[in-house]
Amino acid sequence: MKWRCTWCGKPHDENEPPCDNCGHNKFEQAVVRADEEPAEDQSGRTVDTGPTYVWACPNCDREHVKNNPPCSRCGNPTLERVEQNYDDVDRDLETPSWIEVAKPYTPAFLLVGVVIALFATGIIPPSVLPGIGAPTPPDAPGESTEASGLDLALTEREIHEYLEAEREASNDLSRSYDDGLAVYAEYANRQSVRSDHTDDEIDGVPHPDEFGVDCGDTLPELLPFTTESIVVDEYDSEEELAADIAEGLLDSESGEAVRSGHETEGIDVHVVDGQLYVMYGFC
Q1: What angle do CA 133, 107, 132 make, to 5 degrees?
Q2: Which of 103, 134, 164, 283 places its Cα 20 to 30 Å from the Cα of 111?
Q3: Left, alpha or beta for 271 (phi > 0: left; psi -120 to 50: alpha)?
Q4: Could you tell me which residues are beta bridge partners of residue 154?
Q5: Chain centre to alpha carbon of residue 125
Q6: Between β-strands 27-29 and 39-40, what pairing exists: parallel, antiparallel or unpaired?
Q7: Helix, strand, or coil (residue 81)
Q8: Which tens digits make up the pLDDT trace of 17-69?
Q9: pLDDT digit string (tens) for 144-156?
């Protein structure tokens, strides 16, 4: 047999007032209601426990389990007894769609997408990220990309093409051009320029593996080349400048190493106040 509070309707196992919900001191026996589906008690019998009541603040609508004024939210000195309902449960438990969840983070997603696109298209090189890509060559006086209107990167490629033509004419083995080896040569070349034109303390060149250089079991070699006979301002095209630099390399003490006997090469050209600095790397 179950008992319930005659004031708030809370069910109790024993007829032992007061009610632990509202403090009322009178219980009544719970009876089965024929017009409602009854709840099943622990013995298998069904009983009606009646409506559940709460105490609501008439000022802010805050609901309280017990009639224990003042209101815990607004401090109103009176509470009103109301029947509790669950009309808002379904609404409160509705799960938002993934679009609604993601909407506040849309700007962050767009920013990440733009950054990924910049790296994918090469506009921003991966080397700007710590630990990714080849080490960035140090700053050095002079020009590393263009001098006297000539594209130095194109000049470097033209030097390779000229040397390849000389090897073909001499029936020597051809060499491939390696961009990682070219960056390795550029790093060393800028260090050489800094040593000659600044008082900076010069660090060593990082290991070739950090530049993605693949020379098998051997390490690449670097040959510096400078000459006063080549004045960049006197040239009208990259092809002409490249031809004289290539001839200078072939005629130098390292000419035999430049001409044949290796598989890969990379070249860097740097100009400071008209003076030419060339670093030739090979393996």
Answers
A1: 5
A2: 134
A3: beta
A4: none
A5: 14
A6: unpaired
A7: strand
A8: 888 887 778 888 876 454 544 444 444 454 555 567 788 898 888 888 888 88
A9: 999 999 999 999 9
Instruction: Tell me the C-alpha distance between 271 and 277, whole Å.
Output: 6
Task: Please check the confidence at residue 189 and state whether its pLDDT lies above 60.
Answer: yes
pLDDT at 157 over 70: yes
- Can you tell me the mean pLDDT for 187-216? 88
Q: Which of 19, 90, 88, 16 is nearest to 50 (CA)?
A: 19
Q: 24-33: long-range contacts (C-beta < 8 A, 24 or more apart)?
A: 27/3, 28/3, 28/4, 29/1, 29/2, 29/3, 29/4, 30/1, 30/2, 30/3, 30/4
- DSSP for 142-198 reads SBSSEETTEEHHHHHHHHHHHHHHHHHHTTPPP-EE-HHHHHHHHHHHHHHHHHHH-
Token pair for 160: 């390779």
Side by side, the strands of the sheet bearing 11-12 are 11-12, 3-5, 27-29
Q: Which of 51, 30, 52 is closest to 41 using CA atoms?
A: 30
Residues in the chain: 283
State the pLDDT at residue 212.
84
Torsion sign across C-alpha atoms 22, 23, 24, 28: positive
Confidence (pLDDT) at 266: 94
Q: In sequence order, which ranges of the chain are alpha helices (DSSP H)?
A: 89-92, 98-102, 106-120, 152-169, 179-197, 238-251, 255-259
